[in-house]
């Protein structure tokens, strides 16, 4: 990214200001990247803990549901024989180091269950257990979505930090050095001309 530059003192001052601005921007982006990484690891730990706690419970609920379904009368799955529960998902927007994320909360009213006359106890217990775990599942999905958003922002910020650190700042520094060399040459040639004129 070789810039066309005029070797003037004014250009030298402009480039020095740009270097200072780029260094300040680099430091701000580096601080933001550090904050994003800290938040990412905290969110990742929350996600992994919740996932590790829910996975065995959901596996057990699934197996209980399969066993209960196999032993239940086919009419148990008829919508007329099921009690419905109302669920509403509320979302709140949060901001993590400039990354807009959404957190989901599930509000349930009533418990879903089956008619006791046609469904087994296992199937009814599994429905109740799943209903209890559903808010945590929604939270897990929200954490997953937040992790993806923060991770993509980390990648973008790291790309900007690296572009400043390894491309723009060194190029500006090289241009400053070139201008200094050319100004020194001009000064020497001017001195030589003045000396020759003085003779």
UniProtKB/TrEMBL annotation:
The keyword Nucleus does not apply. Pfam families: ATP-synt_D. InterPro entries: V_ATPase_D. It comes from the Bacteria. Keywords: Ion transport, Transport. GO terms for molecular function: proton-transporting ATPase activity, rotational mechanism. PANTHER family: V-TYPE ATP SYNTHASE SUBUNIT D. Belongs to the V-ATPase D subunit family. This is V-type ATP synthase subunit D. It comes from candidate division WOR-1 bacterium RIFOXYB2_FULL_48_7.
